[in-house]
Amino acid sequence: MNDSSARASILRRVRAASRHDPALAGERGKEMFEELAAPTGSPRSKLAGDLLDRFCRRSQAMSSTADRVSNLAEVPAANARYLSAAELPRSAVCWQEYASLDWAGAGLAVAPRAARDDDLVGITGDFCAIAETGTLMLLSGLTTAATTSLRPEMHIAIVLAARVVAGMEEGIALPRREHGDVPRAVNFVSRPSPTGDIELTIVLGAHGPYRVHLVVVTP
Length: 219
Known about the structure:
It contains six helices and twelve strands. The chain is an alpha/beta fold. It has one domain: 3-Layer(aba) Sandwich (Rossmann fold), CATH 3.40.50.10420.
């Protein structure tokens, strides 16, 4: 039996086993594409308890720190307390949406621009926060530079309680629902940047910030 005959024999057996009817191929193909266009999602357990509490617990379990304030006006003072306690510089860069906060009143010098190599502290918001994994989801854009969270040694993220979702599925669906599409870059931040390349010892800050601090706004 040559290769062509062997292949035809195998395909005949496969069709017989699957009861394949070539006349139904077009209909089955249409059904397949309809299912792909409307995915049902994989089965998963519903998260128990408060989503915000779950998000904070998961983040802190992975070496991030967190503070809570009741409104955005309290964010500068909360950041100043943290930076002072950690003996970090009181200067930073931030996303443009937070430029109007009273940073100077809290004793901080904060510039609304993308981070450069010499910036040690970057302050961002987030598009949403994922409770299941304790992860921040950040979308790149003209006013939300990715370098602000990636380049400085210290990343401070302002997290709005109303933007905490249950899982990755909800997080991925959100930009399409709100904006119709996703931007060029989406960054997920779950903890300070770790590596275990050197003698299998975990070292923070190898490929990004070595500290991640969350300021959670819970009105």
